[in-house]
Design goal:
Blueprint (H helix, E strand, L loop, with lengths): L7 H12 L6 E6 L5 H13 L13 H7 L6 E3 L11 H11 L9 E5 L7 H12 L5 E7 L7 H5 L2 E5 L4 H11 L5 H10 L4 H9 L2 H16 L6 H5 L4 H21 L10 H10 L2 H18 L7 H16 L2
Parallel strand pairs: 1-4, 1-5, 2-3, 3-4
Protein name: DNA polymerase III subunit delta'
GO molecular function, one term: DNA-directed DNA polymerase activity
InterPro entries: DNA_pol3_clamp-load_cplx_C, DNA_pol_III_delta_C, DNA_Rep/Repair_Clamp_Loader, P-loop_NTPase
Length: 326
């Protein structure tokens, strides 16, 4: 069994409830991206469907486990085939509902997993709700959301709610260190905070050269602040503007936090000297104005406005560079 250490408690808790016939048939999980929620549900589902399981582990050898490994288990229904960011329409829900009211093909439990019910259409929500009002026997629903405030109350009222947040930094760092031994504690913690405390996203970030590229950009900012080069604009234009915008926003926030309460929860822990330097040459109002401008630019990037986004990006970079020369 391969499961992330920070969700073992939830894994065992759900299995214990199922083992004692106390597991509610409708589980609504509120979780943030990058904590392994899908892995949790898949492991639990595989264990439930396994015909030769032990206390907490599936056998991985029975017919059920083999079918599950091949993503072809007839009693496990999910919407993984739906492209990301595409809404789940009524026809997909109807097809799943039609099948789960039939007898289990393996003679056991049927499991339905929707990794993101936030992308349901209104019609899909209504169809799901009708099914949840009178769910078929021996059927478990795992419903995952990244924003429970957008889930209709009637679905919430029929579910048992679980919340899976980000693990404590010490747990994430311990896991990351085992997989990334060449990075220091400060580097790992910096990468973790840049990725909003998601250990899974951080691991990918460290291993796809993204961290190295980020470090190069920060080095150029440091050189510019210390009047050692004027290549910052050229370097910035070589990166994706959304990524550079995120890095600059995080840096601005760190400088503001440093000016107010020193090192508390700073993301760019490996750039303390740069943060100190910028804190000494700017004031809070300049920092806030810069942060507002860059935040507004993120909204422009996320919408299909018919404007020259690259030109705005260049203007913002030049304006920001100007504040760093004060």
């Amino acid at each position: 069994m391969n499961i992330y250490p920070w969700i073992i408690h939830q894994y065992k808790d759900l299995i214990n409830k199922y083992d004692k016939n106390k597991l509610h048939p409708i589980i609504l999980i509120q979780s943030i991206i990058g904590v392994g929620t899908s892995q949790l549900i898949l492991n639990i589902s595989k264990w439930i469907l396994c015909s030769n399981k032990n206390r907490y582990a599936h056998c991985n050898n029975c017919q059920s486990c083999l079918l599950f490994n091949q993503k072809n288990h007839p009693d496990f229904y999910n919407s993984y085939s739906i492209p990301k960011n595409k809404y789940i329409g009524i026809n997909i829900i109807r097809k799943i509902i039609e099948n789960i009211y039939k007898t289990s093909q393996q003679g056991g439990t049927k499991i339905v997993y929707f990794p993101n019910i936030n992308i349901f259409t209104t019609e899909s929500n209504n169809a799901l709700l009708k099914t949840l009002e009178e769910p078929p026997k021996n059927t478990i629903f795992f419903l995952r959301t990244t924003n429970i405030t957008k889930i209709i109350q009637t679905i919430k009222s029929r579910s048992t709610l679980y919340y899976i947040g980000y693990p404590k930094e010490i747990i994430s760092i311990k896991w990351l260190k085992k997989k990334n031994q060449y990075y220091s504690y400060v580097q790992l913690l910096t990468a973790l905070r840049i990725n909003n405390n998601s250990p899974i996203s951080t691991h990918k970030f460290l291993n796809n050269h993204a961290f190295k590229k980020r470090n190069i950009f920060m080095q150029e900012v440091y050189k510019f602040v210390n009047n050692k080069n004027n290549k910052l604009l050229n370097i910035a234009l070589q990166y994706d503007s959304f990524i550079i915008t995120k890095y600059i926003c995080y840096l601005l926030l760190d400088v503001i936090k440093y000016r107010i309460c020193k090192k508390y929860k700073i993301k760019n822990l490996d750039q303390i000297q740069l943060i100190k330097k910028i804190a000494n040459i700017t004031n809070n109002q300049i920092l806030i104005n810069n942060l507002i401008a860059w935040t507004q630019y993120t909204q422009i990037l996320s919408n299909s406005y018919k404007i020259d986004k690259k030109l705005i990006f260049i203007e913002l970079i030049l304006s920001w560079m100007n504040t760093l020369c004060i």
